[in-house]
Write a structure and sequence with these properties.
heterotrimer; A alpha/beta (120); B alpha/beta (283); C alpha+beta (134); A: alpha/beta; five-stranded mixed sheet; 4 helices; 46% helix; C: 134 residues; Heat Shock Protein 90; five-stranded antiparallel sheet; ATP-binding protein (chain C)
Chain lengths: 120, 283, 134
């Protein structure tokens, strides 16, 4: 079964989305991630979408849901690497992901996560 | 319609040098040689005359779309482009062709002195051929001019959106002049791209130089701010004058998390303090 | 208006949404569409193709590369034989949804393209035509 890999880096999880996702794959990722947060007691999740050339309302909703779910499970989510054209399109689409933290790249996202969970 | 006689071609070939001389004189007299080096003009007239002779040898048709005239058409297209570049006007470019008509007519008149019917016919043929050449030049000239104008518009648009790096991690976009929809879009795109390219975490959009802010511009600004946040950077709007603030409030726009400062210096101060905090914790 | 190229692609199952996006991306980039405009068009296609699969029970996407008044455009028609939409006005309201989505599909897609035409009635299926000019 096709899956998007989830990497563990200490107490954080890293997901790099590189494929043109169909909806089932997105839903599976959502389930996989919550499972992994539970099993690893991860404190943070980084979702790297720098390779995605499109985010529609479905993927947007998945990201918002992951962010909301992980918060309930005491983990912070940071979305990193959104391309300019994707950001402009999302704004036009009316999807501004208000509750989701963002960072320019994985490196910055990691700093932000550390700050959020109180690790200097 | 009768075609061009081979005798006409022979007359032209036999008097090539003389034709070119008279042609150059005509160009000189009409001022069509201005801004063009004499040496270039000499070369161009020689080449064109040769092309006409070659063309007439191949092609009996005076319809310049015909295959035999392809090289000549190409030559004229190149000529048009170079004339548009040096800023000559379209009629001056067309005149390059038309100035050859006089010397040619004189030549044919002498050549067909004894055959008035044939003279009229050949004059008509030559005339329509050259008119077609002239029109072709004008058409290509206009196309080239339009391309030049389009390129200049694009360059102007680029120039009017200078994204500058103020500090490590801080970009500024000083906007000057009226913002229309297209310009707002270009501004937004180039700022977002620079944020990615430079990895800058804070962007300052300074609107001191923007005379008025209407609904559309305000909305564009808000969209830009939102897009920047989605990408993971921060945006500060500076130079918000009282009357622009009033407009924004009056329009009932939801400014939400928008950070504004009255001038660029204050915005930079805020940006540095934000970065400073982050930098301090980044050990 | 002249049609330079045209074709049709089935939009029946979820994977077809991905294929519809990929085809649109290729058409738009072959016409030299700017990246931002191309991204907007592909996103609109994703929303509409999903609607066709999820709400329309599957259908087709007809595509055309058109020329009009010296400009080039990509025009796409999504059509299905599904239940149709009873209240068009409501369907074009932000946040309204009949299913589990965010309700941004139709309204969002409309904002992402230059031309948008919705033709539907209960029991008559749905037909959405979008155009993005270059």
């Amino acid at each position: 079964m096709e899956r998007i890999p989830i990497l563990q880096m200490g107490e954080f999880l890293l997901v790099t989305i590189q494929v043109d996702m169909h909806d089932q794959l997105a839903l599976r990722l959502q389930d996989d991630l919550t499972d992994r947060i539970e099993h690893t007691s991860a404190r943070g999740v980084l979702i790297d979408i720098s390779a995605l050339d499109m985010v529609d309302s479905f993927i947007g909703r998945m990201i918002a849901t992951i962010s909301g779910l992980s918060r309930i499970m005491d983990a912070e989510t940071v979305l990193v690497g959104m391309q300019p054209a994707v950001a402009i399109t999302l704004v036009e689409l009316g999807l501004t992901l208000p509750g989701v933290s963002t960072a320019l790249n994985v490196d910055r996202g990691m700093h932000l996560l550390r700050k959020r969970v109180g690790r200097p | 319609m009768a075609a061009l006689q081979s005798s006409t071609l022979e007359a032209i070939v036999g008097n090539q040098a003389q034709l070119q001389r008279s042609w150059l004189e005509a160009l000189e007299a009409k001022g069509a040689a201005r801004n063009i080096r004499e040496q270039d003009l000499r070369q161009e007239t020689r080449d064109f005359l040769q092309l006409v002779i070659d063309g007439l040898g191949r092609e009996s048709s005076t319809h310049i779309g015909a295959e035999g005239w392809e090289e000549t058409r190409r030559f004229l297209e190149k000529l048009s482009a170079s004339r548009a570049q040096v800023g000559q006007e379209s009629h001056q470019t067309a005149f390059f062709i038309f100035a050859l008509k006089g010397p040619l007519f004189d030549l044919l008149q002498a050549h067909y002195r004894e055959q008035p019917a044939l003279l009229a016919e050949q004059l008509w043929e030559i005339s329509s051929l050259f008119d077609a050449f002239g029109l072709h030049t004008i058409r290509t000239y206009q196309k080239n001019r339009e391309a030049v104008i389009k390129r200049q518009q694009e360059e102007l648009l680029e120039l009017s959106t200078p994204v500058v790096k103020l500090w490590e991690g801080v970009l500024a976009l000083p906007l000057i002049g009226t913002l229309d929809s297209q310009r707002s879009q270009t501004v937004m795109e180039s700022l977002l791209q620079r944020i990615v390219d430079t990895g800058s975490e804070i962007a300052i959009i300074d609107i001191t130089g923007v005379p008025t802010v209407d609904t559309l511009v305000a909305q564009h600004l808000l969209k830009t701010v939102t897009a920047i946040r989605l990408m993971g950077a921060d945006c500060i709007i500076s130079g918000v004058r009282p009357q622009i603030a009033q407009t924004i409030v009056h329009l009932g726009l939801d400014l939400g998390t928008l950070t504004t400062k009255s001038n660029l210096a204050d915005a930079l101060k805020l940006a540095l303090s934000r970065l400073g905090t982050t930098a301090g914790e980044r050990v | 208006m002249t049609i330079r190229e045209h074709g049709s692609q089935p939009v029946r199952i979820e994977q077809d949404v991905v294929l519809a996006r990929q085809l649109t991306r290729k058409l738009a980039s072959d016409c030299g569409m700017r990246l931002v405009d191309l991204t907007k068009l592909v996103t609109a296609v994703s929303e509409l193709a999903r609607n066709t699969v999820v709400y329309g029970g599957g259908g087709d996407m007809d595509w055309e590369v058109i020329e009009e008044a010296g400009r080039t455009g990509v025009r796409l028609v999504f059509r299905d034989e599904g239940p149709g939409i009873a209240d068009i006005k409501l369907a074009l309201t932000d946040g309204w949804t009949s299913g589990s989505g965010l309700g941004l599909g139709l309204t969002g897609a409309r904002r992402l393209v230059d031309e948008f035409e919705l033709d539907t009635a209960p029991g008559r299926g749905t037909r959405v035509m979008i155009t993005r000019w270059i």
